[in-house]
Specification:
With 420 residues, the chain is an alpha/beta fold. It is 31% helix and 23% strand. The chain binds uridine-diphosphate-2(N-acetylglucosaminyl) butyric acid (EPU).
């Protein structure tokens, strides 16, 4: 299993190009199942979750072609299997996103039930209840969600609680080919939801209000493939900026959408960083500045994202002052805390609140990556630690960060992948 070895006490400086968004690319790839003619996607990141999704589409009969620049053409005109098997679903919960498009276009779907995962139980009841409200007959059998809508789905008024990103995306995809109008209330407002809606609208869907809590979808009879470019990954960008902050460096992330990171950039400024932006770049300059601890509460977009919680927790460990981080989205998203404590962090966990004292002196240690963002925070901690840190089980990182060691290396980090 691959591991990363990081020699600490580097100062990161320079520019890093941000890849396409994983969490936008996954639903958009699944959305290709809805089109009767080929879709060509660009800015799709080369990641393990993307490969898994492509594999899943291919097992159903989507013809996939890829050029050397990772432009991906998907032809779903001859789908022969409407099933997402367990061996793929178990490695990637986002496989549930096959359900909406399959049911919408073909009136049937069989998707293995995703289990809990490291960060929480993550049920899919809202996806299922919403599709049932649209007229689907759904039952669970032998670990599969079996859904049928022989006469097609019909529009419905659906209120979702709590706010769910993939739930909103799945129900949008279910509704685009349904008969009549669907209203999704309390929808997720994440940029990735809006990107999916923009893609589907480009194919002929009639979706209004994506990016706001109320989304209205008027069903259409078919969708035609188009070329589409996926938005940049706001969490990847935020992760490199956090690394610049803790190493007291100056890093510019390029090919980004600064407005997607508004709540995160405000917190960086509160933490003492100097932030400057252009239309497609963000620079974080921490040279000669003091890092201050900041209180954080994670909430759905446009508030502070759970996917940046671990990175800011590392910042707080090192910063001046005490602070509290409160995680409200997932019930078990603090597995990095035990690993950070091994490296010298002073963190007290009280339910969903992590309290830090600040000004910790990190030292290298052998640590284990437990989930994607937890892994990213361990790398950030390792960059400032005294001595070498070994991060094990980095397959989590490869699920969501494209060429991570190359990108960090270019910024001045001493980081090496060891394959075994
Ligand atoms: N929830 C339910 N019932 C449902 C669906 C969700 O109770 O049917 C609950 C969840 O258990 C959770 C909350 O609602 O407590 C929010 O979960 P959500 O459904 O929004 O999460 P998700 O769609 O499974 C996506 C991202 C995550 C990101 C979250 C929150 C993708 C593929 N994944 O997950 O990304 O943390 O939204 O923003 O888009 C990551 O990239 O590292 C990652 C975990």
């Amino acid at each position: 299993m691959d591991k990363l070895v990081i020699q600490g006490q580097a100062v990161l400086n320079g520019e890093v190009e941000i890849s396409g968004s994983k969490n936008a690319a996954l639903p958009i790839l699944m959305g290709a199942l809805l089109a009767e003619t080929p879709v060509t996607l660009s800015n799709v990141p080369h990641l393990r979750d993307v490969t898994t999704t492509i594999q899943l589409l291919a097992t159903m009969g989507t013809e996939v072609m890829m050029d050397e620049r990772m432009n991906i053409t998907l032809d779903s005109s001859h789908i022969h299997t409407k099933e997402a098997p367990f061996d793929l679903v178990k490695t990637m919960r986002a496989s549930i996103l096959a359900m909406g498009p399959l049911l919408s276009r073909f009136g049937e779907a069989k998707v293995a039930l995703p289990g809990g995962c490291a960060i929480g139980s993550r049920p899919v009841n809202i996806h299922i209840d919403g599709m049932m409200k649209m007229g689907a007959d759904i039952h669970i059998e032998d670990g599969f969600i079996i859904a049928k809508a022989e006469a097609g789905l019909k529009g419905a008024d659906i209120d979702m609680h709590p706010v769910t990103v993939t739930g909103t995306e799945n129900l949008i995809m279910a509704a685009v080919l349904a008969k009549g109008t669907t209203i999704l209330r309390n929808s997720a407002c994440e940029p990735e939801v809006e990107d999916l809606a923009n893609f589907l609208n480009a194919m002929g869907a009639k979706i209004k209000g994506a990016g706001s809590p109320t989304i209205t979808i008027e069903g259409v009879s078919k969708l035609q493939g188009v070329p589409y470019r996926v938005i940049p990954d706001r969490i990847e960008a935020g992760t490199y900026l956090a690394a610049a902050a803790v190493t007291q460096g100056c890093v510019t992330v390029t090919q980004v959408e600064p407005q997607h990171l508004r709540s995160v950039l405000e917190k960086f400024e509160e933490a003492g960083a100097l932030i400057t932006e252009t239309e497609s770049t963000i620079t974080l300059d921490m040279r000669g500045r003091e890092l201050k601890a900041v209180d954080i509460v994670t909430h759905p977009y446009p508030n502070f994202p759970t996917d940046m919680q671990a990175q800011f927790l590392v910042m707080n460990c090192l910063a001046i002052g005490e602070a509290k981080v409160k995680e409200t989205i997932f019930e078990n998203r603090y597995m990095h805390v035990a690993e950070l404590i091994k490296m010298g962090a002073d963190i007290e966990l009280d339910g969903n609140v992590a309290k830090t004292k600040g000004q910790a002196k990190f030292h290298g240690a052998e640590v284990v990556a437990t989930d994607l963002r937890a892994s990213a925070c361990l790398i950030i901690a390792a960059l400032v630690a005294e001595g070498a840190t070994v991060v094990n089980k980095i397959y989590h990182i490869d699920r969501g960060y494209e060429r991570i060691e190359e990108k960090f290396h270019r910024l001045g980090a001493n980081i090496q992948r060891l394959s075994s």
